Amino acid sequence: MIYLDNAATSFPKPFGVTEEQARCMRQYCGNPGRGSHALALAASEKIYECRCAIADLFGSAHPENVVFSMNTTMALNTVIKGSLRLGDHVLLSDMEHNATFRPIYKMAREGYLSYDIFPTFSNDPQTTPSDICRAIERMIKPHTRMLICVHASNICSAVLPLAEIGALCHRKGILFVVDAAQSAGVIPIDVEGMQIDALCAPGHKGLLGPQGSGFFLLRDGLSAETLIEGGSGYNSLEGNMPNEAPERYEAGTLPTPAIAGLCEGIRAVRRYGVENIGRHERELNTFLQERLLKIPRVKVYTPHHIGSVLLFNIEGIPADSVGQALAKYGICVRCGYHCSALGHATLATPAGGAVRVSPGIFSTWADMRTLVGAVENLCKNGI
Predict the structure, then answer these.
(1) Which letter, b or e, does each residue of 164-188 get, where b requires 16 or more Cβ atoms within 10 Å of its Cβ?
(2) Which residue would you say has higher pLDDT here, 337 or 236?
């Protein structure tokens, strides 16, 4: 099997990830923060170790501001719904995933807020960070409270200039929320240097952890309303959730085995090096793009962006049919709209969407050559 669907979830996982999950369940899987016995304390220590690893990787001096969630979607929903107020105005990019767009759309439909979509000019090879920031600035209103954007698109390799957007938001007093689902562990991120108020990310993609792990990292001093209330392990006689992070946002029992696995995934990312992982994926996609562009009937979207994701179509063959045919070659890709209606509208993909290829740290040059050969065969002989 050739796995090229790492934008959905990374596979395979480093050996240490699955081993640590199993060790956790065998040796120290008590309920963290819910007791003074050895198993509960060991679980708490592992969770704090993972908070520290996340804070360190993303340039924060405050591991207590790392809040665990089930995935990026839950993290984004918690930050969005906990930070916005009646009458607020929100800006989001034209490349957003539905994890951002759908909660904003629902709140706007209910009359709670208004929003505008700013252009990223992803189809324009000449776009500069200044172009994007000028477009954003023109859309800012007196009641604009939040700007949300993806760092790296999940359907192509467009990357937004976080440092420049963060500086603009800071200057205008706007909360800056970043969806790092496709960039965490692949592109360096410094939340303090980029002036990010809330970074939302999965554990199971570029950080090489298990599914069921995700988090958001808050700027120090930022507090939001809670999305879920329940037991926090202390102050149990009070009706309100605690005021302090992370307990304020982590109602109920945490998924200790998943967090233990994520901790090992981050350790592996550190060992490989974020820059090295990103370079490896870019090199593979550069090779793949050069070969695909030479094949008649193949359209590659945004070829001027080279990163971890490549999107293409074969003229005359629906994207889902291409995916099914590639599966017969043992090649795993993802076809369709990739939960990104805004992004596909921006790139003007046809009905049925497109084929997404997303190599990972364990992908090889041989994988790319096999995929090119399979696409050539489909173009020549059909499915």
Answers:
(1) bbbbbbeeeebbbbbbbbbbbbbbe
(2) 337
Taking the alpha carbons of 115, 116, 121, 122 in that order, is the dihedral positive or negative?
positive
Of 39, 20, 14, 22, nearest to 253 by C-alpha is 39
Q: How many residues does the chain have?
A: 383
> What percent of the chain has a predicted confidence (pLDDT) above 90?
93
Which domains occur in the chain, in start order? Answer: 58-252 (3.40.640.10), 273-381 (3.90.1150.10)
pTM across the whole model: 0.96
> pLDDT digit string (tens) for 125-139?
999 999 999 999 999
Q: Residue 199: left (phi > 0), alpha (psi -120 to 50), or beta?
A: beta
Distance (Å, rounded) from C-alpha 19 to C-alpha 321?
37
Helix (H, G, I), strand (E, B) or coil at 198: strand
Q: Helix 38-57 vs helix 256-272: angle between axes, to the nearest 10 degrees?
A: 40
Q: Which residues contact 233 (CB under 8 A, 6 or more apart)?
A: 32, 33, 34, 247
What 3-state class would DSSP assign to 202? strand
Q: Cα(156)–Cα(300) distance, rounded to whole angstroms?
A: 10
| Residue 382, pLDDT score | 84
